[in-house]
Amino acid sequence: MEVLKEKVEEEEEAEREEAAERGKKMMRPVEMRREELPMTQEMLRDLEKKLSEIEIIIPEPPIITKDTIDISKLPLSYQSNTLKEEHLLEVADNFARQYSHLCPDRVPLFLHPLNECEVPKFVSTTIRPTLMPYPELYNWDSCAQFVSDFLSMVPLPDPLQPVVKEEEKAPPKKYAIKPPRDLSSRFEQEQETKKQEELKGEEERQRKEEEQRLLEVEKAKTDPLHGLRVHSWVLVLSGKREVPENFYIDPFTARSYSTQDDHFLGIESLWNHKNYWVNMQDCWNGCKDLVFDLGDPVRWEYLLLGTDKAPLSVAEEEDDTMNDDDVENLGKEDDDKSFDMPSSWVEQIEISPEAFETRCPNGKKVIQYKRAKLEKWAPYLNSNGLVCRLTAYEDLECTMTLEIKEWFQNREDTLQLRHINKSTGLIIDYFKPGHPQALRVHAYKSMQPEMDRVMEFYETARVDGLIKREETPKTMTEYYRGRSDFLSYRHVDFGDRVKKLALNSAESNPRPMVKITERFSRNPEKPADEDVAERVFLIPEERTQLRYHCRDDHITASKREFLRRTEVDSKGNKIIMTPDMCINFEVEPMEHTKKLLSQYEAMMKLKNEEKLSRHQAWESELEVLEILKLREEEEGAHTLTISIYDTKRNEKSKEYREAMEHVMHEEHLRQVEAQLDYLAPFLAQLPPGEKLTHWQAMKVKDECLSDFKQRLIDKANLIQARFEKETQELQKQQQWYQENQVTLTAEDKAWYLSYYSQAVFRMRILEQRLNRHRELAPLKYLALEEKLHKDPRLVEFLEVFV
């Protein structure tokens, strides 16, 4: 250290000599020849004129406001330093001077900033090594990460995309009318299509060029503060508490980052509550190549000796070669040079549950991104349970909204996420399990019935196994899973109503069903030729088409078609079954299917199943109306659920707690009353300091019992008076009701009935109190008399009397 001081003094002396020599040179007069100054008077005036036209606007200094802190209320540790802290500051100053001398190109170290009281404090003493009472604080501000995670788990399909159905071909007819020829030119159509494609391609190319131009403009903007920003981060080292690798934590957003992240350009220093380390490694490649071995003095220069440091991995082999004397000498050297870090001067941070739940000032936080805005709220701050909203914009000025995603918590309707697409008008609601209708996803453009919408359900919460329902003004498609009848698909085509009624008249005037298509999964208990794969009911035509499952060793499947007739024969009898009413295509013909009786039974069975399918489709329409009505009520009320452990928001729990406190208060008053001296008012009438005589004891006893008896009688009279008053009031109201019964309105009658029930209730309570008082009064009197006989102040006189 002395050699270093001498070297520093020599360099300072050399610098002073050089400065003096430069000062002498600057004092020499500068000799100039007149021919070197060709400037004329006219040129000087012109220069002065131009200079006078230049206006210099001096910017006003920024107004810096400091937080008003009452220093007098702060502890003494905030306002002054102890001797140990002063010694630490001297050590830090000496360390800073050596560091500035050895590393003149680096920025000064951040060692001892000023605190609230303008007192310098070493940075390590500002850390208070206490456990976090609310570890969830590190997870609240990770909503953006939750957005990506949630969207990766829950795909956002296009629910209004039509389902590709299998091509349905009508059975071949014997005679058919040829359609008219298409006289339009195919060449013109192709040219028009080609022209439209070229226009679309040109628009897409222009859009991409504009985006590319904006990106190039943004990239061309250089950051003047690149590499000059300094920020404090939290470094978590691996090893303890099962931490697998090193990582950073941003204290403002509570997000974690890897030490290999490109956003980190370098590290100046590290510190904790025990020591301070300076990074001596080269950060030309950012923080990717840094080695966080704090026990290596070559990479990390430490401030204090004798503190806990992570040992070098190479030193483990060297420790085995050290003898006992070296260890003892090393311990003595450390004892001589060690300096313990003073304890923290800051108070323990105390955050109330209410303040912690707000998570930010006023419970709201807005983060502006490029073409996006993220808004966050504390739970229960918004009446609808909204806690996060992500808005994406189409332009950089954030004026044209593209889509909105809203996250909810504690909703009674279990709504979790709402995705609004402004360009298409599509709204998608995502629900957690627990909705009364087992809703999982609801996609819609309007809440009006019989419009384009998609509903997805939690099939495990439904008895019918419905997992998805798609609805359009003319169709409704349902998908099932895990049903006992193996139904997996139902598609209903609707026709036009005969009369124009309201849209919510599905129950009174349902839409006429034109076609019902049902598909079934394979039933392994049945042969493939008898297991129906698809069933189509053509209701106006009274036809039913069946397609069976295809066997594994066949390439085609059997088909059947039934046609019900309402005609009569030549004799006037109704036609029940004829061979042409059933058309069969069987891969392997079976004898029993050719019999008319078997065909008639199959047709009657299909007729009943058609009625059942129509009824189930009608019930599905009613369920859609019920769900829409329920959703409107939920959106209007947007009730929030409150935990039973949240005593401040849960009204029932709050009422129960207040009732228990009232009971405990009354019990406390009874105990206090029991501890009161019931003889004190009567003993106070006697001369003070005089010994109690036999006659006086008897008088005190009689007066106490007489007074207690009178109080019991007064209480009974009071209850009786209140009972009579309630009776008179009730009689008056009854008389008023009898006189004005004909002219009373419904509200007056309701008020009278409410008053009557309350009055009768109060009279019953008073009657019960009076009866209870009559029963307990003698017992209380005898209990007081027994207490008086056992009272130590009267016992000797009363025993003699007895």
Main features:
802 residues, alpha+beta, 16-stranded antiparallel beta sheet, 16 helices, 22 strands, flat, disordered N terminus
Structural class: alpha+beta
Based on DSSP secondary structure assignment, what is the total number of beta strands?
22
The shape is: flat
Major sheet details? 16 strands, antiparallel
Q: Give the N-terminus to C-terminus distance in angstroms.
A: 103 Å
Helix tally equals: 16
Q: In which order are the strands of the major sheet placed?
A: 7-8-9-10-11-12-13-14-15-16-17-18-19-20-21-22
Radius of gyration: 47 Å
**Mean pLDDT over the residues:** 80
Report strand %: 15-25%
Helix content: 25-40%
Stretches where pLDDT is under 50 for at least 5 consecutive residues are 1-5, 23-39, 55-65, 131-173, 310-322, 330-336
Task: Provide an overview of this structure.
The chain has 802 residues and is an alpha+beta fold. It is built from 16 helices and 22 strands. It has a 16-stranded antiparallel β-sheet, with helices on one face. The chain has a three-stranded antiparallel β-sheet with strand order 1-2-3, with no helix packed on it. The protein has a three-stranded antiparallel β-sheet with strand order 4-5-6, with no helix packed on it. The protein has helices at 2-27, 41-53, 76-79, 83-102, 137-140, 143-153, 186-220, 315-319, 324-337, 353-358, 596-637, 651-675, 680-683, 694-739, 746-790, 795-801; strands at 234-236, 247-249, 256-258, 269-271, 276-279, 300-302, 364-369, 372-377, 386-393, 401-408, 415-421, 426-431, 439-444, 453-457, 466-471, 475-480, 487-494, 513-520, 532-538, 543-548, 559-563, 582-585. This is Dynein regulatory complex subunit 7. It is found in: Cytoplasm, Cytoskeleton.
